[in-house]
Design brief:
The protein is about 50% helix and about 5% strand. By secondary structure, it is mainly alpha-helical.
Length: about 210
């Protein structure tokens, strides 16, 4: 797959288009970017993504990079830990940011929404146990607030704890004072974001993409 050519008519692109929903032109553009990021190699590694200047300033850079090497985000089952990915894997992850097509049925739109939310959930469920625990949530909040120098770590932890209690009240209802909230399951996650328009917010417009500034 790493030897793909950049021509939109390349036969391997047709199979990838069916799997990911990207057009042949979009796949061609993304393949050029893949080769640019990997320094023309057939595999992409974490250190390649770490070199993206705009990504270095992102407070959740770690989660974004790891999403590309999380085997839960690939279509095929992979047994071994993922240390490098090929172009097909790259496309599979990028497809989570593809805006839904205008001609999708209601059932298909629901499926797309659930896939996008599952991708977001996986980013924060770092130990891959199916639950976003308080410690995992604290880590995310602390990173998001790390650019506010006036906020101390204890303040960030307090914000995370209060938010998690609010989540518990929404997803579990009344809880006894000594009852422990284990964390956010995917079902809770779906409930929390019910009504939130994720389909277009979690997207990148590819048709006019400048591969030098992606």
């Amino acid at each position: 797959m790493g030897s793909l050519q950049s021509s939109p008519s390349h036969p391997d692109y047709v199979d990838l288009a069916e799997k990911t929903g990207f057009s042949l032109e979009q796949i061609s553009i993304l393949h050029k970017r893949f080769k640019q990021l990997s320094h023309n190699e057939d595999k992409l590694r974490r250190e390649h993504l770490d070199q993206i200047t705009d990504l270095q300033a992102n407070p959740i850079r770690e989660q974004i990079v790891e999403a590309f090497f999380d085997k839960r985000n690939f279509y095929q089952d992979i047994e071994e830990p993922v240390n490098e990915i090929n172009f097909e894997n790259f496309l599979e992850v990028m497809s989570n940011f593809r805006p839904p097509s205008d001609n999708l049925s209601e059932e298909q739109l629901v499926k797309v929404r659930k896939e996008k939310l599952r991708f977001l959930f996986n980013m924060h469920d770092t130990d891959k146990d199916g639950t976003i625990t308080l410690e995992e949530y604290r880590h995310v909040v602390e990173e998001l607030l790390s650019y506010y120098e006036a906020l101390e770590n204890e303040t960030a932890r307090g914000i995370a704890d209060a938010a998690m209690l609010e989540v518990a009240s929404i997803t579990r209802g009344h809880m006894e004072p000594d009852e422990f909230y284990e964390g956010i399951t995917f079902e809770h996650f779906l409930k929390l974001l019910e009504g939130f328009e994720i389909e277009s917010r979690m997207s990148i417009r590819f048709m006019n993409m400048d591969t030098t500034t992606l």
